[in-house]
Amino acid sequence: MTDKENIVLLANEASVDFGRRVATELNIPFTEMVKKYFADGELYHAFPEALTGKDVILIGATHNDSSHQELLDLIDGCHHGRARSVNVVVPYLGYSTMERARHGMHEIPKGITRTRQIFRSRPDLVAFIDLHSESVLHAHSGHVHTIHIRSNDLIVRKIQEMGLKDYVLVSPDYGRSKWVANLAGQLGSPHTAADKDRFAMDRTMVGQVAGVVKGKTVIICDDMIRTGGSMIQTAQRCREAGAVDTMLFATHLVLAGNARDRFKENGINRIIGADTFPGTRSDDMLDVYSVAPLVAEVMAKYLKIG
User: Fold this and answer.
1) Hey, which bits of 77-135 come out as E strands?
2) CA dist 71 to 15, 77, 214, 236, Å?
3) Beta pairing class for 245-253 and 217-225
4) pLDDT digit string, tens, across residues 210-232
5) I need a surface site. Which of 21, 39, 219, 302 has the fewest CB within 10 A?
6) Which regions of 15-65 does DSSP assign to beta strands (E)?
7) How far apart are the C-alpha atoms of 252 and 98, rounded to whole Å?
8) What is the pLDDT of residues 162-212, one digit of tens each?
9) Strands 43-46 and 55-59: what pairing?
């Protein structure tokens, strides 16, 4: 068993709010980093207490370059401070859709290379939430323990709490259809998948949606929403097929650029998702639930926190 007194829970700046929620669930203090900028832009970090012999839980989304680098700095800093173990939770993994390079394109598969940088900093554990692809779990030589935290049960519970009577789950492409089918099986609801073909780096075209959506409320489900192009097209096809309402559901609500405006312009006024992406909060469009209780449960089990 690990004594709670021996746990130090930290976060990079992007994940402080999420880290606080996990700390509350574990009933332990959240430890705020000492952080300031020098005149030349260099960043100063200091731990507010000694880490020698401590078990560190480090929460760090990597949605941009600075957050990724800060997470690496904190991991190495924990080692320098002689922490007994360094256990990393990545709520949102940047570049997660770039897990492989297309043949002949000479691309850098940053989903793999960035994750490998985290592994090379030698944490004891790295846990990810609802990965786009599990291939990143294997981007190390076996010296790091990895966990893929799946939030399916939370998603099912959230949909059940919405109190919808006649709805269908829709995957925006066949690649996610197995996952959506699993959710539908837990919910006892019908499901279908749109026919999507990607024709440019950020552009997709959605074909016909099966008639199973006629007269029903459609919940379009995916692991993340970035620009939302394919989901908007899927919603349009569903309405053309007779759906009475459409809403979106995704764990990671990136909502890049003018995505929110585009959703409103296309009749989508409700988006449900988790608090994994930094800064995500409920408002007149977003209905956000927290996966912090699930993360706390997984970490308590892994570290045998007593």
Assistant:
1) 85-90, 125-129
2) 10, 10, 47, 40
3) parallel
4) 778 999 999 999 999 999 998 99
5) 39
6) 34-37, 43-46, 55-59
7) 16
8) 999 999 999 998 888 999 999 999 999 999 988 655 545 555 445 567 778
9) unpaired
Rounded CA-CA distance 251/130 in Å is 7
Please state, rounded to an integer, the average pLDDT across all residues of the chain. Answer: 93
Cβ contacts of residue 198 below 8 Å, gap of 6+? 204
Q: How confident is the model at residue 100 (pLDDT cuts 50, 70, 90)?
A: confident
User: In the numeric block, which tokens belong to residue 202?
Assistant: 């950020």
Domains of the chain: 4-151+293-303 (3.40.50.2020), 152-289 (3.40.50.2020)
Helix (H/G/I), strand (E/B), else coil: 4: helix
- The answer to whether 253 touches 225, Cβ cutoff 8 Å, is yes
d(CA 231, CA 239): 12
Residue type for position 262: R
Taking a C-beta distance cutoff of 8 angstroms, is the pair 61, 90 a contact?
yes
